């Protein structure tokens, strides 16, 4: 009779990393914080659902606009949006980590994007006056902010009366924010849901400060 002990031991050894990873994710979810700069390579991996082109389609950036990106990290989306608002538009990219800000500044310089202004700042207290931006967006960021309600208040404050806000979320991000809860929170602030694109586990949603005539939901 073959002993099952070695098999059980092997299964236990294989399960340990999975359990450790799950425990880390649960702790991270219950203690919101941005992705550490030391793990920056992970945030530059391909994002098959929340793609750059899909963000551009939902955000609809136009030449000459003044836009805000909250939590750009290393700039996965920044260059794409910056090019869409050239030549006279400006993209302000606010990140709470100074290392990310410097990394982004270097990357934009290397890519030849001169209309991006990296800024160190906190989403809960944005360093801008009221009614500053034509549009704002944040991707895989809202759930990392300890006080999401205050951050949403700030985003609503800095948007122009006809501005628009785009939020992107996707699993397996441990800080994933579901669409229905997101919609409820944002509509409480007077912004109207206008469009959503993606899948049920990864999406971009746009909200308008001025009510939209028709809402579009293209979730697959």
Automatic annotation (TrEMBL):
Keywords: Methyltransferase, Transferase. One of its GO terms (molecular function) is S-adenosylmethionine-dependent methyltransferase activity. SUPFAM superfamilies: S-adenosyl-L-methionine-dependent methyltransferases. Gene3D superfamilies: Vaccinia Virus protein VP39 (3.40.50.150). Pfam families: Methyltransf_11 (PF08241). The keyword Transferase applies. InterPro entries: Methyltransf_11, SAM-dependent_MTases_sf. GO terms for biological process: methylation. Residues 68-167 form the Methyltransferase type domain. PANTHER family: 2-METHOXY-6-POLYPRENYL-1,4-BENZOQUINOL METHYLASE, MITOCHONDRIAL, METHYLTRANSFERASE. This is Methyltransferase domain-containing protein.
């Amino acid at each position: 009779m073959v002993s099952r002990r070695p098999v059980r031991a092997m299964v236990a050894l294989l399960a340990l990393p999975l359990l450790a990873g799950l425990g880390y994710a649960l702790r991270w979810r219950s203690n919101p914080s941005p992705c550490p700069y030391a793990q920056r390579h992970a945030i530059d991996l391909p994002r098959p659902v929340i793609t750059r082109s899909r963000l551009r389609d939902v955000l609809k950036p136009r030449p000459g606009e003044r836009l805000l990106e909250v939590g750009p990290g290393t700039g996965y989306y920044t260059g794409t949006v910056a090019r869409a608002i050239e030549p006279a538009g400006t993209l302000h990219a606010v990140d709470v980590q100074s290392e990310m800000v410097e990394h982004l500044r270097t990357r934009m310089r290397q890519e030849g994007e001169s209309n991006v202004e990296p800024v160190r700042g906190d989403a809960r207290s944005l360093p801008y006056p009221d009614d500053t931006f034509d549009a704002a967006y944040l991707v895989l960021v809202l759930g990392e902010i300890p006080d999401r309600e205050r951050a949403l208040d700030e985003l609503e404050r800095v948007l122009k009366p006809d501005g628009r806000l785009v939020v992107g979320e996707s699993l397996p991000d441990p800080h994933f924010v579901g669409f229905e809860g997101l919609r409820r929170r944002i509509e409480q602030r007077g912004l109207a849901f206008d469009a959503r694109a993606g899948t049920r586990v990864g999406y971009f949603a746009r909200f308008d400060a001025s009510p939209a005539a028709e809402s579009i939901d293209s979730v697959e």
